[in-house]
Amino acid sequence: MQITENEGKITVYLEGRIDTNNAPQVEKEIFDAIVGKTSDIVIDAENLEYISSAGLRVLMKLRKSIDKQLPVINVSRDVYDIFDTTGFTELFDIKKALRKVSVEGCEKIGEGGNGAVYRLDEDKIVKVYKPWMGHEAIERERTFAKTALVNGIPSVIAYDMVRVDDCFGIVFEMLHSDTLGHAMRDNPEKFVDYVDQYVALAKTLHSTHVPKDSFTTIQTVMHGKADNLTRWCSPEEIALLHGIIDSIPETDTITHNDLHPGNIMIQDGELVLIDMPEVTMGPSVCDLTAIFRDIISAPKNKPDIIERSVGMPSEMIMKAGNLFFMKYNGFTDGKQLEEYYKKLGLLYALNVVLVPGSGNEEAVKNADIIMNNLLRGVVIPNEQTIKGLFRIM
To answer: How many CB atoms lie within 10 A of CB 123?
Structure first.
């Protein structure tokens, strides 16, 4: 049996058989490893062949001792039957072992910050996540996709979570599809029509009302990031950030938070979403700020990265962005757009300040610069303006 600890989580890898012969030793090793620790614990049962009632009692003792949820993942069908028969599936968070999928020889049809999308066959695609994306975050996206679908959001069916080599993936329904970014690039004569569809999709999202607790609120996500800035900010600065976040109106509408053309697929002429790990409930201005980040700011500052994600040249991305905001807001001239960008720029500065709190590697590396230039140079001097913008935009 192996036991590892990484990033505040202890993983216990069970192997072979656990029965009356070795259950006491298994119990001792586990409890010796967790004594004095406050880390979350996960049981990985991928190599567990059999568990008797004695082994189950060890897990029950462990669950009672930590007094919190105890996930058991990668459970084989035979072992799952034991958990199910004994009622342990009602006491523990049991996850069956994931089926394995190969993308060798498959066409890559899209790539973003969280992973890449491959066509498995005529009816299905698989989104393969980066190795650092954890099981819980990916399962959350699958749940979000299902929730969005039943609430009328144009999204595809999310089937099962799978293993692709050392990464996790989700298999989605997809018929004769391509990304919106590729379609814009390859069909310039339809460019304006595609932007019209893009605007319509965004407005559908921003006008769809969902039941309470369908998704995490944008305020909760932002508060969590602010709490993680203690390495770079004073308590007073963090309190100021929390105050700004508290000024964001609570809504029951959806924000995607990564709604660029590389994360949107075209299926039988309809735009649908497959990239949904960051979906929240919040006001539309939060989503528009993220769109501004991806298709107005990023093409200027990180053209190579955004071109790979969106799937078209940076000049075309900005053209799509300008047209998107003109049509979304009903602007008739460039001066209106310029004034609008100044306002979105202030809200975007707040977003950038919070990024190191998400653990983004590049942002953490540049956190001191971000705090000096944006937090103290832009956000704090414009605190009241930013609060007002959240209320009126």
So the answer is: 11
Residue 137 exposure: Cα atoms within 13 Å on the Cβ side: 15
Residue 91: is its pLDDT beyond 90? no
Q: Which helix (H) or strand (E) holds 281?
A: strand 280-281
Q: Which two tokens stand for residue 360?
A: 């983004």
In the predicted model, what is the mean pLDDT of the chain? 89
d(CA 191, CA 186): 9
Determine whether domain 107-173 maps to CATH 3.40.190.10. no
Q: What is the pLDDT of residues 175-187, one digit of tens each?
A: 667 789 999 999 9
Distances (CA, A) of 17 to 23, 56, 60, 117, 210: 9, 12, 17, 38, 46
In total, the chain counts a number of residues equal to: 393
pLDDT category at 196 given cuts 50, 70, 90 is very high
| Structural contact between residues 168 and 135, judged by C-beta atoms closer than 8 angstroms | yes
- Domain parsing of the chain, residue ranges: 2-97, 107-173, 177-392
Cα dist. 31→48, 62, 384 in Å?
19, 8, 52
- Give me the pLDDT at residue 344, please: 95
Instruction: Identify the CA nearest to 281 among candidates 253, 244, 247.
Output: 253
Which CATH fold topology does 2-97 show?
Transcription Regulator spoIIAA (3.30.750)
Q: Under a CB-based contact definition with an 8 Å cutoff, are residues 182 and 316 in contact?
A: no
Percentage of the chain surpassing pLDDT 90? 48
> What pLDDT, on the 0 to 100 scale, is given for residue 341?
95
pTM of the model: 0.72
Residues near 105 by beta carbon (within 8 Å), at least 6 away in sequence: none
Task: Read off the tokens for 320.
Answer: 């799509």
End-to-end CA distance of the chain: 56
Say which CATH architecture domain 177-392 belongs to: Alpha-Beta Complex (3.90)
Residues 125 and 253 sit within 8 Å (Cβ to Cβ): no
Do the beta carbons of residue 313 and residue 261 sit within 8 Å?
no
Which pair of structure tokens corresponds to residue 381? 């001097």
Distance between CA atoms of residues 253 and 393, nearest Å: 15
